[in-house]
Design goal:
196 residues, alpha/beta, Rossmann fold, two-stranded antiparallel ribbon, 7 helices, 43% helix, elongated
Length: 196
């Protein structure tokens, strides 16, 4: 450190690092940067949505799915029903955790999970599964499930991870009896048949 400018830059970096830690573990949303920090940034630096607000990721929210149980107890209970009431050739829409449980306990396949990464178009399959869960449109979800040869929707009551979608599913569309039929339920999961 040869000059006062270097010391100021070091202090700014330390302060911003401290703010990132605080924001990631304790704060949510956006933090307004003090003018002294934004005035020290080089001209044209993009910090966030505007020149004075920095948006930090919510670390707790991002890590939630990896810190807890990947599969709920009721999901494991549902695999007995799957073994007893579905064909070995039936295909499921499930997220990665649910698909792994289904494959491991029943040998049924899913859009994602298991050895899906070696199948053709794994990224397309992740996007499709994510869209089936996230859309509010029952007709769209049904059309995508049918187009991908899926017979059942596996809908656990937890945050889902399809590879491109990690949130809670938009669930009410599956109660549309024109497209889906509830065939199994417990406290942790619902299974819907994709109607022809």
């Amino acid at each position: 450190m040869s000059s006062g400018t270097d010391i100021v830059k070091l202090l700014v970096v330390v302060m911003m690092f401290g703010m990132m830690l605080y924001a990631g573990y304790y704060a949510t949303g956006q933090i307004e940067l003090p003018a002294i920090l934004t005035n020290l940034l080089p001209e044209g630096t993009v910090v966030g949505w505007n020149d004075r607000t920095i948006v930090f990721p919510d670390v707790d929210h991002s890590a939630e799915m990896w810190l807890g149980s990947q599969v709920l107890p009721g999901e494991m209970d549902a695999t007995k029903w799957i073994n007893d009431h579905t064909e070995k050739s039936d295909k499921f829409v499930a997220d990665i955790g649910g698909a792994e449980a289904i494959m491991g306990m029943t040998t049924r396949v899913s859009l994602v999970g298991g050895d899906w990464a070696n199948a053709p178009d794994p990224v397309k399959n992740m996007e499709t599964a994510g869209r089936i869960y996230s859309t509010d449109d029952a007709a769209e979800a049904h059309a995508m499930a049918v187009a991908n040869g899926c017979d059942y929707i596996f809908l656990p009551d937890r945050r889902l991870n399809t590879g491109t979608f990690d949130n809670y599913a938009s669930t009410y569309k599956f109660s549309n009896t024109t497209y889906f039929q509830l065939v199994y339920t417990n406290d942790d999961v619902n299974i819907y048949r994709v109607l022809p």
